[in-house]
Every structure is written in structure tokens, then in C-alpha cells.
Amino acid sequence: MSSPHQIPGTTIFNGAEAQKGLALNKMCFSFNSAENRAEFVRNPEAYCTKFGLTPEQKAAVRAKNVLAMIEAGGNVYYLAKLAGIYGLNVQDIGAQQTGMSVDAFKEKLQAAGR
Q1: Which three-class secondary structure state does DSSP give residue 7?
Q2: In angstroms, rounded to a whole number, what is the distance separating the alpha carbons of residues 101 and 58?
Q3: What is the number of structural domains in the chain?
Q4: Are 85 and 63 spatial neighbours (Cβ–Cβ below 8 Å)?
Q5: Could you give the 3-state DSSP secondary structure of residue 10?
Q6: Distance, CA of 38 to CA of 31 (rounded, Å)
Q7: How far apart are CA 98 and CA 39, in angstroms?
Q8: Is 3 within a domain?
Q9: Range of the structural domain that residue 101 is part of
């Protein structure tokens, strides 16, 4: 039997996830500063190391995989700052969530609106 706190395929952001993702979320929060965004763009690996990201978190950041970042404890509100640096929009993230290409995801949205 499933716990009421489990939704298949969904990472629930709770206290344990917040602890797990603390370094990643602190890094993303730092992107409120244009200077920090520029530093990240110059050397993402060094910036991730500066904040103490785990190997799993670094791999997710390198891959620009928002779902993997969420699984690594990232909070979607903080991750939006990083997604913006990468030029990812909501449709890009929706495509990741559904395992579709961006074009297929856009077509699905358009078909749903007809």
C-alpha cells in the first residue's frame, strides 16, 4: 500500500529532501546576484564545488536535467533561477518531465488546447 505522501514518479519536497538539497538550493539562491550568475557561467564546475554539491547534484547540473536536480533535493523555486541561466523555459522542463522532445511536448499542449 502506498503512503499518502507518495505520488508515483514525483519527488515530494519535504524536510529530508530540503536537507539533502541544501547545498544545491543555496547555490541556486545565490543566483539572485548578477555577479554570481556570471561567475557560474564562467566556470560551472568550480562554482558547484564552491557550494559543496554532491557528485549526483553536479552531474544533474552538468546535464541541465531539472528532474535529476529535484531528485537530488533541489527545490523547484530555486532551480528556476538555474534553469533561467541555461535558457530553459517551462516547455523545456515540461518536456523533461514527460520524457518527450520539446517539439512533441509543444504539439501535445497545442492539441490539448484545441
Answers
A1: strand
A2: 23
A3: 1
A4: no
A5: strand
A6: 9
A7: 32
A8: no
A9: 15-113
Query: Could you read off the pLDDT of 19-62 as tens digits, one per residue?
Result: 899 999 999 999 999 999 999 999 999 999 999 999 999 999 99
CATH number at residue 29: 1.10.700.10
Residues 38/89, Cβ–Cβ less than 8 Å: no
How many other C-beta atoms lie within 10 A of the C-beta of residue 77?
11
d(CA 48, CA 58): 7
Write down the mean pLDDT value for the chain.
Answer: 88
d(CA 65, CA 63): 5
Note whether residue 9 is domain-resident. Answer: no
Please check whether residue 38 lies inside any domain of the structure: yes
DSSP state of 3: -
C-alpha cell recorded at residue 62: 552538468
Q: Is residue 73 part of a domain?
A: yes
Q: Which of 109, 71, 73 minimizes the C-alpha distance to 89?
A: 109
Q: How many residues does the chain have?
A: 114
